[in-house]
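Quick one: co-fold with zinc ion.
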Amino acid sequence: MIIKEVIQIGNPILSRKSKFVAKIDSEETRRAIKNLIDSMRYHNLIGIAASQIGEKLRVFVTEVRKTKYRNLEKDKLRVYINPKIVWSSKKEVVIYEGCGSVAYAKLFAPVKRPEKIIIEALDESGNKFKLEASGMLSRVIQHEYDHLNGIEFTEKILDMRMIMSSEEYKKKMALKK
Ligand SMILES: [Zn+2]
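Sure, here it is.
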């Protein structure tokens, strides 16, 4: 298992645009995907994009589940290669986001994005799939998709006065239940 350090904001690698993956069935792509999955799980993240571990590829993975930061309903592990969001709902919702690249996921802030999306991508076997997502899965997909274009969620924070530490966020979520 190879655990990669998550690159932190301020590092220009995170602002780069990632490149389309030309060869899905290659050692490089397979290794990058495995490193992404291992690193996501190790760092308690529910999604991670290749740029965050220094790979300039249009690849990200998601696995919505319970982590030390949040108690979420489970969605299976998914791999997205050369993804494209082909539809977004007009309706937008505000959800708190954190990121492994922003103070090692110790900072949460409200971001407004479309509630639902449809994404098309290739899976790790190179098969094309189309997925309609809502809730937290939709949110993670949009966040990771931004990473492929060099965009960090801190550029989209709705209200700077509502930024919270992960500890305070956890308390807030506990009160909400
Ligand atoms: Zn992120």
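If it helps, Helices lie at 27-42, 135-148, 166-176.
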